[in-house]
Specification:
By secondary structure, the chain is an alpha+beta fold. It has 25 helices and 17 strands. α18 packs across α19. Helix content is about 40%, strand content about 15%. It folds into two domains: about 220 residues, 4-Layer Sandwich (Glutamine Phosphoribosylpyrophosphate, subunit 1, domain 1), CATH 3.60.20; about 300 residues, Rossmann fold.
Length: about 625
């Protein structure tokens, strides 16, 4: 796991000193070593910061082939690199390293070209300088697990793992993007290909691109995209049993692959299904008593999952470590976290995730987690409400929706985790819009009319939520709502919120986070399952739970989902957190929202946190 940066520029628009500034801005991502490659004649500059995980002695970067035809900077892990190395060796390729996955990428590109991407099982963002064909090839993994920002301006093409590294280049754009900020308050995160800086883009997951060094032309393409291909036939009980066994086998293989490391590793353990499954399967492949697990708890019992994590750890037999996050600790940690946040991110669980990664890093260098399970197997609460929402929309005239929302608004506000009043109000808010917008409006900090009020102008909802609409419609005209929702959560929410949050929180501490549920074999299996075995008779993740019955007790598999939240509502209500009030129209909006929240008239926790994060980010990143 590492940080990468680079640029291609004519003389006078960047040099090695600029490259070093960009690369050293990524030191937290790679604390073990740094390396540089410069071809001044062709304007190629490549920088790398290394977190040494595999082949510690021979995996230094930038790495060149023995004939110097190819050079790579790579961030990530390729879990099937041993199999790919064997395939290449059978074709006569000789390797300089013992077991470096970076060198496999170099020789794999020489043999298969861009077709190599289809063979990779892992997480990655890399850039390969092809001297023979005079081009730069850049690619990002299927789900965008590893970040990659880029810009092309005034004869300069630059890329980096983080936005703040790109801002070290003198040609970098610096103006805030108005549409990206609106999407930030619509979703709670900034969706690819947008970034908060106008003119800087995120290369979306499953995308690659080539820069021709002669013409300067940059051409990007989609090399993979998550797409459901479910079976249409209703499965028999026997078929479900076979699928459950296959799923367990594939998930076990995914975990085993991710135990590959030359450094200590552990597992994030909340006590929920996904993390408990990963920990239980990891314990199968490690000596007894060697597995270490880690969790974070809260003083508010509605948010605290420590009892469940301890139960799971005791069952699995892991050595368990935990820490508590309360308001005093949060106020101590938040300034330091937000000062280092690369881009505004409104997920409140960023804070406990950062704390979790920090104390985990004191014990291990790699941690496995359960990200992806909810998206692939219909685990979130909104999945259960989809058919109820359709029924409501068909029976209740739209003219009555505002009145019903007004009645629901009279319900007392609770700041408990996923309280009943929160779910009712959020669902009714989403139902005020057509089905393509329900999920993002349900989950987002502000709805479209509020965004118009905050910014003082109008943006059509179809523009605000264009990515959500595309994901919803991509499932097909006759798709079940569960499959449509899975497309939304997997393509958008997973990539731009969950994975981005975990990447930033872990890499700020130099910790590598791995996600077995996003293994290529697991994903390909899950996307072909019919929705009826994911959500069955009101039970979420039904097929996953059946698969895990030989591994975990019913008390873990079938307990009510709690979710990884943070008591932000209470903290804002009691004055423990106070968002900065901006000037102008936005300031008036923030003041009204804060007053309503403190008076108990409304629950504005999501918006207030997004506003607080944005204000703190603006203090630390120079923008215009």
């Amino acid at each position: 796991m590492c940080g990468i940066a680079g640029f291609v520029a004519s003389r006078g628009t960047g040099d090695r000193e600029v490259l070093e500034r960009m690369t050293r801005a990524l030191a937290h991502r790679g604390p073990d070593a740094e390396g540089y490659f410069v071809d001044a004649e062709r304007g190629m500059h490549l920088g790398h910061r290394r977190l040494a995980i595999v082949d510690l002695s021979r995996g230094a970067q930038p790495m060149e082939t023995s004939d110097n035809d190819l050079v790579i900077v790579f961030n990530g892990e390729i879990y099937n690199h041993c199999e790919l190395r064997a395939q290449l060796q059978s074709k006569g390729y000789l390797f300089q390293s013992d077991h470096s996955d970076t060198e496999v990428l170099l020789e794999g590109y020489r043999e298969w070209g861009e077709g190599m991407l289809d063979r990779l099982n892992g997480m990655f963002a890399f850039a390969i300088f092809d001297k023979v064909h005079n081009k730069l090839f850049i690619a990002r993994d299927r789900f965008g697990k590893k970040p990659l920002y880029w810009f092309q301006k005034d004869g300069v093409f630059a890329f980096a793992s983080e936005l703040t590294a790109l801002l070290r280049h003198p040609q970098s754009p610096r103006n805030e993007s108005a549409i990206a900020l609106k999407k930030y308050f619509a979703y709670g995160y900034i969706s690819a290909p947008h970034s908060v800086i106008e003119g800087i883009g995120k290369l979306p997951g499953g995308r690659c691109g080539t820069l021709d060094l002669v013409s300067g032309q940059w051409v990007a393409r989609k090399w993979w995209e998550f797409c459901l291909e479910p079976s249409s036939a209703e499965p028999t009980n026997a078929q479900c049993g076979i699928w459950a066994e296959e799923l367990l086998e594939k998930l076990d293989g995914a975990v085993k692959r991710r135990l590959m490391a030359d450094v200590p590793l552990g597992v994030f353990l909340s006590g929920g299904i996904d993390s408990s499954a990963i920990a239980a399967l990891a314990a199968r492949h490690l000596p007894a008593g060697r597995l270490r697990t880690f969790s974070v708890g809260f003083t508010d019992p509605s948010f605290d999952e420590l009892p469940y994590a301890r139960e799971a750890a005791a069952f699995i037999g892991s050595v368990h470590e935990s820490e508590i996050l309360d308001l005093a600790r949060a106020r101590e940690l938040i300034p330091g976290l937000l000062a280092r946040l690369d881009e505004p991110m409104g997920d409140g669980s960023l804070l406990p995730t950062w704390l979790l990664c920090g104390f985990t890093r004191r014990h291990v260098t790699v941690a496995l987690g359960g990200d992806g399970g909810d998206e692939l197997f219909a685990g979130y609460d909104p999945f259960k409400a989809l058919h109820t929402a359709d029924l409501y929309s068909s029976l209740v005239p739209r003219a009555l929706h505002p009145a019903i929302r007004m009645l629901a608004a009279r319900l007392p506000v609770s700041h408990a985790n996923i309280s009943l009043d929160f779910k009712i109000k959020r669902m009714l808010r989403g139902l005020s819009y057509d089905e393509r917008l329900r999920l993002p409006v349900w989950m987002g900090p502000l709805e479209p009319r509020q965004i118009d009020e905050y910014f003082g102008d109008h943006t059509p909802p179809e523009e605000l939520f264009s990515e959500a609409i595309e994901a919803w419609e991509s499932a097909g005209e006759h798709a079940d709502p569960v499959d449509r929702a899975s497309q939304f959560f997997t393509r958008l929410y997973l990539q731009d919120d969950i994975l981005a949050k975990v990447d930033r929180a872990s890499m700020l501490h130099g910790l590598e986070a791995r996600s077995p549920f996003l293994d290529l074999e697991v994903v390909d299996f899950a996307r072909k399952l019919p929705h009826s075995v994911k959500l069955r008779a009101g039970t979420t993740k039904w097929i996953l739970k059946k698969a895990l019955e030989p591994v975990l007790p019913a008390s873990i598999l079938y307990r009510k989902k709690k979710g990884f939240g943070t008591p932000l509502g209470q903290w804002f209500s009691e004055g423990g957190l106070v968002p900065e009030i901006p000037a102008g129209i936005a300031g008036n909006f923030v003041e009204k929202a804060l007053s309503s929240h403190r008076a108990g008239r409304g629950d504005e926790r999501l918006f207030l946190w997004c506003q607080h994060v944005l204000a703190e980010w603006r203090k630390t990143v120079f923008v215009r």
